[in-house]
Amino acid sequence: VCDPSVVLGTPQTYPTPPTLHNRCLISHPQPHPHTHPRSHVDLTSMGVGMCGWCGGVLCEWQLHKVAGALQHRIIRFLMSIHPRKRSIYLTRHGESLYNKSKRLGGDSGLSQAGIRYSVALKAFMQRENVPDLKVWTSSMQRTIQTAALFENVTSFKALDELNAGQFEGSTYEEIKEKHPLVNESRSLNKYYYRYPRGESYKDVVERLEPLLVELEREENLLVVSHQAVARCLLSYFNTIPHDKLPKELPYLEVPLHTVLKVTPTTQGCTIEKFVLGPDAVNTHQPQSRPPRYWMLVPVPMYSFWLEAYH
Q1: Is the CB of residue 227 less than 8 Å from the CB of residue 161?
Q2: Which of 135, 134, 138 is nearest to 155 (CA)?
Q3: 3 and 43 in contact (C-beta within 8 Å)?
Q4: What is the pLDDT of residues 154-173, one digit of tens each?
Q5: Buried b / exposed e along 232-265 (16+ C-beta atoms within 10 A)
Q6: What are 265's strand-pairing partners?
Q7: Strand order in the sheet with 88-92
Q8: Does 216 score more than 60 pLDDT?
Q9: Catalytic site residues?
Q10: ∠ at Cα 85 (83, 89), nearest 5°?
């Protein structure tokens, strides 16, 4: 039996009446033997193998004076985590026509190599023999085509690729030649830089947050997404510290036609890499060092001026 008290914020009255969850019993403010001046949560184990939802530990949650958006997000996330053994497979879509021409974004279909990868991916998952597999894709046709041979497929707009704004369909060489200020500004801070009328990596992280809660509820899952999204998900499972995200997340290497198998454990996650082929173009952009004089330009001010200019 465990009874930890988790301090979550300032005390307020929680107005919601008692509800019954199919996994845990949630009881809202009730008399508590210990007087605590701040909001907190009591979690009590009621025995192993008693929960019909997960077959694991049945718990009683007592929420005391919990209020506010952040506190509710924390509670919702904690209640989404389950102890059942599972595997999460992360992969990018098969090689697309835009990948072959080295163009950003767009909604192009698969190349011939990408179509062969969709077949190889299906064969790989059959060899894995995963029970009750669910498949998530983005709303873009290259991920939907990659998962065309699977059943139980759901598409999510939140899994869409980072939006390059007015530079959708351009190549890095074209941006460097015609818009050197954009190229240098993004090289200076790739995580926070937002394309004009587009997104930054930080924007992608924020739109993925609600989906992570749903991901934690699932069991065996195959996520077919894009390079920026796969980097964000991989950084989550690798538990990269928040202060290191700007330096590490945008440069994680997630090649095409490769599957990353994530297995949650009590000590974190183990990640296995499977290269399925066929050969595809390399879309990874290594970190480049901008000219020294750009270091004198504040990124937020410069990005604001750049977006207003365009």
Answers
A1: yes
A2: 138
A3: yes
A4: 999 999 999 999 999 999 99
A5: bbbbbbeeeeeeebeeebbebebebbbbbbbebe
A6: 268
A7: 153-155, 134-137, 221-225, 88-92, 258-265, 268-275
A8: yes
A9: 92-93, 99, 142, 161, 226
A10: 120
